[in-house]
Each structure stands twice: as structure tokens, then as C-alpha cells.
Specification:
The chain is an alpha/beta fold. It contains 14 helices and 15 strands. Strands 14-13-12-11-7-10-9-8-15 form a nine-stranded mixed beta sheet, with helices on both faces. Strands 3-2-1-4-5-6 form a six-stranded parallel beta sheet. The radius of gyration is 24 Å and the shape is globular.
Length: about 475
């Protein structure tokens, strides 16, 4: 079916940096229908050609070696612009007339992408409904909503309720770009397409799981957003819990959007609720030195820029296996990784000269050095029976010759095709907030655990290492990935 992609907030950074380059790349790869129209909507005043010209430079930059001037000229003829204010009902009526005009009365699916400020989501949805733009009689009508999806459980529920007044749940695509990454999707293949991993992917063989999302950068000029959000809202409620769900979920009966999301939701249902002393013993919070001097940060701010959590999934597969989740700004390096730490062998055969038992480790590097490493013990050459850790290393970029598609390519294509497997469902969002909200409340209470300071460029507060070592008798996998490709 022919389709039209309408991008609200088309003059913003996300459109020029991610969305249009992704759509251009899909077009170049012949993955979009022959009849596709892309309509940018924002308050700025552009003619169609002006809008196309404004996008050409950013597409050339972000599409990289995929950019081709002739292909761009062909693609740009599918790009249109319609000025509009989300708060103006007549602008939505004008948009409806414009879409009918360019679709020439032919049945066409429509995908609405809300690349706007989150405060405008509800109004945009309401206006789409009032203008009749959600009616799917003549083709699908779907809406993509960017994070943050609410700021707590109450606001998430309110947003869900308002959207459900206009769109059915099957029409709503809540996007998390982490799930579009090839390495995240490959976790499904790693677990469910290989007989060697799934039998040991459980409490009998796994000691614990670590999920780390570290960023080198500090907040810069984002204080207006960040000081009201903090690391839990910014990273844990969405990205990190999504990675945890995929790591911990049961295999669905088949790879189907509803069944995949059912299994993910079961993981959140199984997460043990923190109560009482848990908030002090199972969480660590930190703030990098110099945060209070950042432009726009209020004096004495207690907003965390680092957090570590210990969660349990109380179900048959994972009972008793801790999941350690952490994220921070101003860290040693930029990396997103999942570490499956297996139990060590019960007995060492080789005498006292052999070092203490070391468990095998499977490391999934999500970014930037996308790949999978298996750490195992091997003998040191020309020695007595001494062992060392060796690595089997799979590099996605080398295997794909460096042509790793951007996450938005996959997610936009899935939304057009109606595959919601990699998008969050309403109950999933609300359950995630149900895990994060009590921690936030505890951290804002008079009994909040101490906010530790840490020097930018390290792996967070030293107290987080002490918490992991002294209290939990484990250690963080503090290894920066090595990039082996240009």
C-alpha cells in the first residue's frame, strides 16, 4: 500500500539528524514502497523546495557513504512541507486537505511521527483525532511517540488514557531507539537460535547479570531537562529496563509482536519490589563533581547523574540471580554492554599454583564496538597448569563490513510495516514506571541514601565499587570496548 509519513516538529534536530537520513537510506536500499510521501510539519514557513534544500546537507553528512546526489534528487521529490502549529485546529484541517491532495484520493496508509516536545504529545493526538486524521477506513493510521513517555506512573497513565481516546493500542508505537540497534536485536538470535546458550541461561549456571550504559559526556547545556529528570528517568525507565527485559524474557511461541511483548511484560511483573531498607542496600546514587556549576543547575541540586541498582526477577528461571543495572554521565568511556557472568567451577583440579576460580563471562557490546565476546579459561603456554582468561570475539562491524544500519532505519520500517515487536506497549511503560517511581520517592525523602560525588572520567563513585565488592562480593566489569573498525 502507498503510504505517507508525517513528521511533526520537522524543523527540529531529530528530523534532520536521524529521521530524514534514515528514510533516505531506506529509499536508497529500495525498502520503501514506490509510492511514499514524507511531509514535514512545523511552525516555520517553508516552500517544498526550501525544505528539501535545508535537509540535503544534513542527509549528506549523516548518511555518510550511502549518500548519492542523484538518489537524493529522486528521494527529495517525495518530500513535502506543510506549515502548522500543533495548538491550531485550523492548521490540522489544512493538513488533512493537503494530505488528501498529495494522495490524490487513493487509499494510503499514514504514519504520524511526533518529534516534538513531550508537553505537546496530548494536544497533537487530540488535534489529529478532531481533524479526522486517525480514521483508518482508507488505510492504516499509526502514531510514533518519542520518549520520555511520561515523567512518572501517574503522567504515563494520563498520557496513555488521552492517546487511547483517539488511537487504538495497536496503532500506537512508542519508540526507544536502543531497540532498533542490530546488537540488541541480535540478543534474540543469540538466545533462541543457538542451542548452546539457552540451556544455561538460568539461575543454575548464571551468577549474576550486569547491564551498563555509560556516557563520557556531561550534561552540557541540557540542565533545563536533565535536572528535572536525572539518570533514573533518563536512562533506566526506558533503555536499561528494555535491555533487561530482552535479556531475561522467556522465548515466545513465535516471533510475533504481541507474543514478544507479552514475554517482556512478564519480566517486569516478576521484578521484586523494593521496600524499607532495600532502597539503601540495593541502590547507589552519585553526582559528578562540577555538576552544580553547570549552566542552569540550581544551587544544592540533589539530582543524580549516576545510579546503580540491584534488582531480582522472582520467577522460575531467575530466582536468586541479581541483575545489576548502572548508568552515568561523565564516565570513563562511552559504552553500552550486557554481561552474563556465569558461576565458577566448583573445584579447581590443578593445585595451589592455580589462581582462584574464575567464572566464564559472555559480554554483549551494544555500542560503540558492537559485538559479542565469550571469556573462558585456557592454559598459559610453557607453564605448569596455570590458567588465564582468553576471549572468543565476534565483531559485528567487521562481519557486516562496517555497514551497520542506524537504529531509526529499522524502527521506521517496522512502523510502516506494522511490526510493533520493538516498540513499548502501554502496560509495559506503566510497569516500568512502577519499578522506578518508588526508588525516586525514596531518593527524594528525608531518609534518602547519600549522594556520592565522583570525578568525571572514572567509572562512577568509588563507593559503587565498594558496594559491589564488600556488600555483594562481586566486581563490576569495568572495561572500555576496543574499536576495531574505522
Amino acid at each position: 500500500m502507498a503510504h505517507t509519513i508525517v513528521i511533526f516538529g520537522a524543523s527540529g534536530d531529530l528530523t534532520s539528524r536521524k529521521l530524514i537520513p534514515a528514510l533516505y537510506s531506506l529509499f536508497k536500499k529500495n525498502k520503501l514502497d514506490d509510492v511514499v510521501r514524507i511531509v514535514g510539519v512545523s511552525r516555520s514557513r517553508f516552500e517544498n523546495q526550501q525544505f528539501r534544500d535545508s535537509l540535503r546537507e544534513s542527509v549528506a553528512k549523516f548518511a555518510g557513504k550511502l549518500f548519492d546526489a542523484q538518489t537524493w534528487d529522486e528521494f527529495s521529490q517525495h518530500v513535502y512541507y506543510q506549515p502548522g502549529d500543533i495548538k491550531d485546529a485550523e492548521d490540522f484541517n489544512a493538513l488533512a486537505r493537503f494530505l488528501d491532495e498529495i494522495e490524490q484520493g487513493e487509499p494510503s496508509g499514514r504514519l504520524y511521527y511526533l518529534s516534538t516536545m513531550p508537553q505537546l504529545y496530548e494536544e497533537a493526538i487530540r488535534q489529529l483525532g478532531a481533524a479526522g486524521l486517525a480514521d483508518d477506513t482508507d488505510g492504516f493510521r499509526r502514531v510514533i511517540i518519542e520518549k520520555p513517555f511520561g515523567t512518572d506512573l501517574a503522567t504515563a497513565r494520563a498520557l496513555n488514557d488521552s492517546i487511547h481516546k483517539v488511537f487504538r493500542e495497536d496503532q500506537i508505537y512508542r519508540i526507544d531507539h536502543y531497540l532498533g540497534k542490530e546488537t540488541v536485536q541480535n540478543i534474540f538470535a543469540l538466545r533462541f537460535a543457538n542451542s548452546i546458550f539457552e540451556p544455561i541461561w538460568n539461575r543454575n549456571y548464571v551468577d549474576h547479570v550486569q547491564i551498563t550504559v555509560a556516557e563520557e559526556v556531561i550534561i552540557g547545556r541540557r540542565a533545563g531537562y536533565y535536572d528535572n529528570a536525572g539518570i533514573l528517568r533518563d536512562m533506566f525507565q526506558n533503555h536499561i529496563l528494555q535491555l533487561m527485559m530482552i535479556t531475561a524474557m522467556e522465548p515466545p511461541a513465535k516471533y510475533d509482536a504481541a507474543l514478544v511483548r507479552d514475554e517482556k511484560v512478564k519480566v517486569l511483573h516478576s521484578v521484586r519490589k523494593m521496600t524499607g531498607a532495600d532502597f539503601a542496600s540495593n541502590t547507589v546514587r552519585g553526582q559528578y563533581e562540577g555538576y552544580l556549576k553547570e549552566e542552569g543547575v540550581p544551587a544544592g541540586s540533589q539530582t543524580e547523574t549516576y545510579a546503580a541498582l540491584k534488582l531480582y526477577c522472582d520467577n522460575w528461571r531467575w530466582k536468586g540471580v541479581p541483575f545489576y543495572l548502572r548508568s552515568g554521565k561523565g564516565m570513563s568511556c562511552r559504552t553500552t554492554q550486557i554481561v552474563i557472568q556465569f558461576r565458577h567451577v566448583p573445584h579447581i583440579l590443578f593445585g595451589q599454583k592455580t589462581r582462584s576460580p574464575v567464572g566464564n563471562r559472555l559480554v554483549v557490546q551494544i555500542q560503540p564496538a558492537e559485538g559479542i565476546q565469550l571469556h573462558f579459561e585456557s592454559k598459559v603456554p610453557e607453564s605448569e597448569m596455570k590458567t588465564r582468561t582468553s576471549t572468543l570475539d565476534f565483531d559485528f562491524n567487521q562481519s557486516s563490513k562496517g555497514d551497520m544500519p542506524d537504529a531509526y532505519q529499522r524502527l521506521l520500517l517496522d512502523a510502516v510495516l506494522g511490526d510493533a515487536s520493538l516498540f513499548a506497549r502501554s502496560d509495559e511503560v506503566e510497569l516500568a514506571w512502577g519499578i522506578i517511581d518508588p526508588i525516586l520517592a525514596a531518593w527524594r525523602s528525608p531518609a534518602a541514601p547519600e549522594l556520592f560525588q565522583y570525578t568525571p572520567g572514572l567509572w562512577g563513585p568509588p563507593e559503587a565499587n565498594e558496594w559491589m565488592g564488600n556488600q555483594h562480593h562481586r566486581e563490576w566489569f569495568d572495561v572500555c570496548p576496543v574499536l576495531t573498525h574505522p
